[in-house]
Amino acid sequence: MLKLYVGPLSLFSRKVEIALREKGIAYEREFVAFTQERGYEPKHPAVLAHNPKHQVPVLIDGDLALFDSTVILEYLDELCPEPPLYPATPQDRVRCRLLELDADEILFAPVRNLLFRTEPPHADAHTHAARVAAGKAAEGAISARFAELDARLRHDDFFCGALSVADIGLFMTVLFIQRLGGPKLDSHANLARWYRGLLARPAFSQAAAEIAAADRELSPALAAG
Ligand SMILES: N[C@@H](CCC(=O)N[C@@H](CS)C(=O)NCC(=O)O)C(=O)O
To answer: How far is the CA of 189 from the centre of ligand 1 (A)?
Structure first.
């Protein structure tokens, strides 16, 4: 059976779990330790052994060890092609891959400036104020991206025709924006409809519920927030 090492609050781990569940692939999962104070330190031995970047997710399939959510999603789609998580033509596939990259690296970039909201206020008032200001600026950038993404969904329920890795990646980044108190989806009707539609799928609702439960346990600052 496949074995997946995940973090309780790891966006990239949940991408892989959503794909596994959408495809109905059985897997065993092991949570690596995580606290808001120390992050992933000390790193899990399997993560140190199998990922030179020392990050989760890590997937073990027999004597094969893979890392990076994007690489793992591609492997899963080849291993178990039904239901496909990529479109059929090379052009549509690359559009889809670029949207997944957008979720993970471009839309996610300003989200990094919201992550401080999971931590207690910084002891130094100036540092805290600088973080708050950077968070506000990030919210402006995210709102602009929401408007763009909303326009792309004008006529569609999914970003690439049918459910794909683009939806999985974007869902997780939008979920993180919501949990970190970023811009709401209310004024973006198409994006809100798309998000609700995904939340109605068990694979996605389980990811959302598990992140919320992990926050209740690990991120008291968010509740206080
Ligand atoms: N591009 C990687 C990113 C993985 C990543 O950033 N993992 C985080 C948890 S979500 C991690 O393990 N961070 C610990 C570290 O970087 O030391 C992927 O898609 O898997």
So the answer is: 31
